[in-house]
User: Fold this.
Amino acid sequence: MRRWWQEISGLVLPIACGGCGLPRTPLCEECAQELHGPGARRARPLPEPAGLPEVYAAAPYADAVRAMLLGHKERGVLGLARPLGAALAGAVRAAVAPAVREVPLLLVPVPSSRRAVRARGHDPARRIALAAAGELRRAGTPARVLPVLRQRREVADQSGLTARERAENLSGALEAVAGAGRLLAGGRAVLVDDLMTTGASLAESARALHMAGGGRCPAFARTAAAVIAASPMSFDIKRN
Ligand SMILES: [Zn+2]
Assistant:
């Protein structure tokens, strides 16, 4: 449930760019360029957590992209869901080879904690996943959102934790809902999130999906992952 002031502020405040605050546009050209510019690329955190699938990200987490993600996530600027969803759709396309796009893409959002969803009044990753699925469908790729992961227990807020602490905080924290294996069997699962920091959430999500498939189902064997943004460093490092 959104707070009343979020509903009202969207109606009465003048529109400003979600990236830089430029008035009279929900997203200016320059900030759109930062979000979609060079296209989605492989992003690898360092250190790379065990079990992390191949992750593709639309943009580095900096400047306007950071402002947009925070605006959407923390301030409920829901008008940003569509451009952010389009960026995520680009990362999903990069993560999944065209040859396997005939089967429906099943976008599985990394679940937020119930506490965070309550505090924010919405579930940002799920909202962006829905926008991305819509974008993919409009472009002719069958896609839908399957929110089959959930938290088994409350986890501490990840911000302020080191990579190792994040991994420990999340270890075994997620599970797939009953029947997830059946729901996912007919398509290609792609884990989606708004932001990859250390990769701990995506690695734990991949593990939970794998368990849902009993470790055998091909739908889970090569889980891909796509995010809107990842730390700038995770794009730069060359590793052979
Ligand atoms: Zn802007």
The longest strand covers residues 188-196.
